[in-house]
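Thread title: Can someone regenerate the structure for this chain?

I was given the following input by a collaborator and told the matching C-alpha cells would be attached. They weren't. Posting the sequence so someone can regenerate them.
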Amino acid sequence: MEKSLFEVAGWSEEDCILSLGCGAAWWEIKQMAENAAGEMLLLDPNKDVLNWPDVEEGLSYFENHYQTRVATPIHIIHAEASAIPLAAATVDQVWLLNSLHEMDDLEAILAEIDRVLKLDGCVIMEEILTGGIHDGCGKRLFKLEELIELFRGVDMRVDFQSSKDQEADYVKFVR
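Best answer:
Regenerated them for you:
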C-alpha cells in the first residue's frame, strides 16, 4: 500500500525538520505547502543547487498551485551532512529523501544525525532499495538490510517501512 510522506512522518506545526542533501528543495517545499511545520532547515553543500532564487521559485510555484501561503519558516544551510552546524538535540525529524546513497562518510553523517536529533525524534528516508546503480547519479543504492545495519550503529531501529510508489520506499527510523 503506497503512503505519502506526511502519512509516514506525521510532523506537527511545531516540529523542526532538517532535510539533508536536499538539492533545490522542491520536494520539501511541496510538503510544507501541504502540511506546515514549525521550521524547515534545508542542508546541502552545493550553493549552485540550493539557493534562495530557486527556493523562492519553488515557494511561488506551490503557493500558486495550492492557492495558499507556505507558512513554515525555511532556512538554507550550506554545509556537509557530516558536519551539521546545529546544536545537539535541536531537530524533531531528519529527512534523507533519495540522498543518503549520494553521500560519503556515512558513519560521520549518522553520528551527526544522532547528535542533532531530539531523543524522541525520527529519521525519514525515501530511497530506492534495490542495491543497484542509481540512474541519476551513478552511485550504488542501498538494500534495506544495509540501512538497518547502518542505523543500528547509532542505536536506531526501523519503526515503519512502506512503498512510496513502484520504485521507492519510505523507511522511518527511531531510537
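The radius of gyration is 15 Å.
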